[in-house]
């Protein structure tokens, strides 16, 4: 026991001393044991993480991270995020001033003796609405810095699916549980989507590499792409792999996106966009693979599979028109529908082209059923390997990403916000944002109004297949409100003391003495905690001296013609308006409480469940950050 603890034990009763130990000591222990590795306090940059929004919380797992801690070294520390991070989403915040982010250590599963995954290029699923769990699927071990204190070697493929119970009131023997899906591999770098209303997760193609398992360590810098799409039943933790032989390109892809559009067809559709191709079972690297263009997207009719689970369902290739984006991978997408479901819009943000060494900072929208692209934003701060999600009624939150030529992410909390209706970047999450309206740039050619009434009800270039026309002309009946949405959090009203409360207060003067003592203890704890935080903040503000990367790090970073060294000076983050093409969103200082939809259904009839695939590096093990 420390001298401070001994002193406190002599000054105060044992109950108060226990209070101190329970409240303050866990924080100190956490800070001491992870002082140079904390993914929030020492955040520099993070990419290839997985994330999901459920209830009032955004969960972030894994990801490559650079840590900033001048207390140990003047150089950025390259490693992995080994914590589960949570962002509170029940009320509004500004990430520059009052965002609430916490993290927690992952305990070993006592059943198997293994740690929950802290991988890269995996994904997360919400899971059924009636369970207090979220799910982590797939991923690969980051082997770029094996001397990192949090590094663990690749684990077996046996348990590619894990669940995390986030509600402490739920009685569960383990907070983390793992599941054997009876599949041969744990994939990564695939595209994922989730039909929350059907308890189904989908994982399209993907790859295995040297970080997949002990059996693949011999692969070096090669990757093998995986055919098929996993259909995962999250209600009973089982999976089936169905063929994707008819998908565009004739082979599996990595680094693309998959979006679920609930209102279309009898059971919704999946839209597959972009990615990098490689022949089945061949070894490849990111600079030689073929990038898929966005002039064609693939649509999967979910009902065609559910009606006959012994089949592989039906894929339709559909041509697109408009401002077609340049080929790329490792972008992120979200989807949202007009209030009357007359149109559906997939937003695509950022990404990079590893073949041409081009990185992107732009936003495109693919509008359905017109299948027309519209570029709505262009900036000068490229980002790839990031996640994004639909939050509130009309905002897209972006998480992390590789900023290519910056030592630390100028978004110092690793998040940013885009209003999908006004196409305005900002730092404020508005939990009470108005309902989604179709942007003016799209309404101008789509017809109707921002609220709906789209005039174009079929592809600009016509349907490539009459079967897809039938799917889009099928009306699906959906619940009027999403089952997965939490109840709104409303500010409490001032309470009026009851007669019994007043009477009790008259006879409780002795309680006041105890309360006063407790308040004193809390004040002292606040001072101690404040001093600890001030000391840590002071350490982080020290300038970082530049240095030359050693030979091992150059092997990691200098894989392609473009070389990325981490600069030695940590610049002050620029304003969002300077980085993106539009000014920062207006900020309303009042914090409200609101329901956070778990789907892309907005009040008034906007059904669908958005799950943005966790972007992953198309470079796979060949990525310049992923080599040994």
From TrEMBL:
UniProt keyword Membrane present: yes
Region called Disordered, residue ranges: 478-504
Keywords recorded for this protein, A-Z: Kelch repeat, Membrane, Repeat, Signal, Transmembrane, Transmembrane helix
Highest taxon in the source lineage: Eukaryota
Signal sequence bounds: 1-31
Regions crossing the membrane: 511-535
Listed InterPro entries: Gal_Oxase/kelch_b-propeller, Kelch-typ_b-propeller
Name of this chain's protein: Cell wall anchored protein
